[in-house]
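Chain A, query sequence.
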Amino acid sequence: MSEPATIQASASLWQPRSAWGGAPRAGRHGAPGQAGIRLTLLEGRGLATLVATEGNEAGLQTVLAERFGLSAPEAGGAAFEGERGLVWSAPGQWLAVAPSPHALRDLPEALRGLAAVTDQSDGRALVRVSGPQARALLAKGVAVDLHPRAFGPGRAAVTSIAHIGVQLWQRDAGPSYDIAVARSFAGSFWAWLEHAAAEFGYEVATVQG
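Chain A, predicted structure.
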């Protein structure tokens, strides 16, 4: 009688868990009054790094455009159609973003010989920072100039926030920003984020896929 119970208990340990590890608390937090920040946890997204093979960057961009409708942005850029897009990571490298990992399933075969494709869906945590005080919040820790003249919609950076490596891109003029952080640093990053957001008042929500 004990063996099935043991198997069931062991299986439960392997259930999928959020990259944020349960640290965020949904709802309204921080200073009273109208919330100046909204933190949206983007769960279940598909992420993959694309690294062009030598001499094949043009061919890679052609296949991405023709087969997937994705535009590979130039250095420091991000190109999106809805929740699908590419974010520049380094010369010849991009981060592909999609509503689910399933949406990226055809990339490895389609880009064979043109790029190395590495799934990052479970390796990074994504959060969207928006609201009238979003820029002021991130300016507390980000190591790039976020002034609208220097960093606006469609801009991206591989940088650090509070000494934690992140990939950051601006989605719109709201402003709203998406931030990808390594899963192993998600808890530390969230601790900084909620502390920095407290003075503005903030709301936490989750969007699946």
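The chain has two domains: 19-43+122-208, 46-119. The longest strand covers residues 164-172.
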